[in-house]
Amino acid sequence: MVLVAPEKTGQALEIMLIEDSLLDARLTIEALKRCGIHHRLTLFRDGAEAIEFLYQRGVFALAPAPAIILLDLYLPDTDGVTFLRQIRTDGKLMNIPVVVLTSSDDGTNERECEMLGVSSYIRKPFNEDKFLSVIRRLKGVCLSLEAET
Question: Looking at the domain that runs over 2-148, which CATH code has it been given?
Answer without folding.
Answer: 3.40.50.2300
